[in-house]
Amino acid sequence: MTLISDNLKTKIEDLAIFGGKPLFSEKQHVGRPNLGDRTQFLNRINDMLDLNWLTNRGPFVKEFEQKIADYLGVKHCVSVCNATIALELAIRALELTGEVIIPSFTFIATAHALQWQEITPVFCDIDPITHTIDPDKIESMITPRTTGIIGVHVWGQPCNIEALTTIAKKHNLKLMFDAAHAMGCSYQGKMIGSFGDAEVLSFHATKFLNSFEGGAIVTNNDELAEKLILMENFGFSGLDNVIYIGTNGKMSEVCAAMGLTSLESINEFIEINHQNYQCYQQELKDIKGIKLFTYNQQEQCNYQYIVLEIDEEITNISRDKFVDILTAENIIARRYFYPGCHRMQPYKSYFPHAGLLLPETEKLSNKVMLLPTGVNMNPDKIIKITDLIKFILDNTCSIANKDNK
C-alpha cells in the first residue's frame, strides 16, 4: 500500500517535516524505473543463456541498435555501456580539442566528458523559456581554440537546432547534441537523433526508456560510425587486429535485452507520462508563483519530466524549502541542475567568475524543482501531491513562523 489514507493536511502540524505522518508510505521518485513486459524480458534472458553469448556485440545488441536506428530514422546507432562513455567517444571521434561551448545547465557528465580529455568546456547561458543553450550568446564565446558546440536537449525540449547549425557552419565547428533526455522527441517533425554530427542517447535506469544502464551514439555519418565501432572495442577490426586506439565501451547482451523490452513498451510509457503531465497541468494551472514547464504539443515528446519553477518573490517560500517539505512526505522532488556545472569542481576553481556571464542559468538553477512521474504514478497520487503543494502555498507564513521558533 503506497498511499496513507485519511492523512489530509489541515494544519501545518500535519506536515511530516513538523512531525506529522508522511503523505506516502513509500518514496515517490522522479526517475523510478519503468519496466516493460517481464515475461518477454525473461524469455530473452533464457535465449541469451542458451546461446551463451553475454557480450561483444551479440545478437541482442545488434537488434537493439537496428531498432533504435529505425525508430529514429537515422543510419547508424552505436550502443555503449552508458551515456557518459558515449559522450567521451563521440567527442574523441569528432576530434574535438581546445575549447567546446556547452550550457552550464546540464548534468555534470556533459562537462566532465570534455575535461576528462583535457578539453575546456566553455559555459554558455541559456534561454529562460526553453531552458536550452541560447544561440544568441554563443558567437561572443568563440575563440581561435574553439572546435565545437554541444547542445543539450533539456527535458526533451530540443535546442534551437537550426540556429546552432548555422553558427557551426559559419565558424567551421563540429556540432553534437547531448540527447540524454530526448529519446522519442522531435524537432520540426523530425526525430531527435539525426541532427548535427552526432547525438548521444541515455538508457540509464532513471530514463523513461532504459536498458538497466546504457547509452548510444546515433549519426548519419558513415565514417564516424565506423570509427565509433572501433573505439568502443579497443580498436579491434577482426581477430587480433587492432587498427585504432579504443577503450571498452560495449553494451552487454543483458542490457540490450532490457532495452529491446523497453522499446516494445515505448508508446505505453509515453502515453502514461503524457497523462501524468496533463493531470499536473490541470491541477497546477492558475497558481501564482508556480510555473509548469510546457511542452510543444505540435512535436513528439516523451513527457518524462514534470518541471516546476518556483518564484520565491511571489510564493514567499524558496524552492529548497519546498523540496525539504515534499521530501519529508516521501515525495522525492529534485533540484535540476543545481547549482550548475560552473559552480561544481573543478570548474568552480577554473572559472570563479563564470556566474557573471550566466545570469539565466543562475536564476533557473535556483527555481527548478522536478516532481514524480512515470508508470508508477497515477492521477490519485498526482492530486495528492498537487493538493499538498496548494496547502503549502496557502500556509507559507505559518511555515516560516514555525521554522523561526
From TrEMBL:
In terms of SUPFAM superfamilies, this protein maps to:
PLP-dependent transferases
Q: At which residues is N6-(pyridoxal phosphate)lysine found? A: 207
EC no.? 2.6.1.50
Which GO-annotated molecular functions does the record name? glutamine-scyllo-inositol transaminase activity; pyridoxal phosphate binding
The UniProt keywords, alphabetically, are: Aminotransferase, Pyridoxal phosphate, Transferase
Listed under GO biological process in this entry are: polysaccharide biosynthetic process
Asked if the Swiss-Prot or TrEMBL record annotates the protein with the keyword Coiled coil, the reply is: no
Q: Please give the superkingdom of this protein's source.
A: Bacteria
The yes or no answer to whether the keyword Transferase is present is yes
- Residues forming the catalytic site: 207 (proton acceptor)
Q: Name one Pfam family in it.
A: DegT_DnrJ_EryC1
Q: Which InterPro entries match?
A: DegT/StrS_aminotransferase, PyrdxlP-dep_Trfase, PyrdxlP-dep_Trfase_major, PyrdxlP-dep_Trfase_small
Which regions span the lipid bilayer? none
Under which main EC class is this enzyme filed? Answer: transferase
Describe the family membership recorded for this protein in Swiss-Prot or TrEMBL. Answer: Belongs to the DegT/DnrJ/EryC1 family.
Listed name of the protein: Glutamine--scyllo-inositol transaminase
Recorded source organism is Cyanobacterium aponinum (strain PCC 10605)
Organismal lineage = Bacteria, Bacillati, Cyanobacteriota, Cyanophyceae, Oscillatoriophycideae
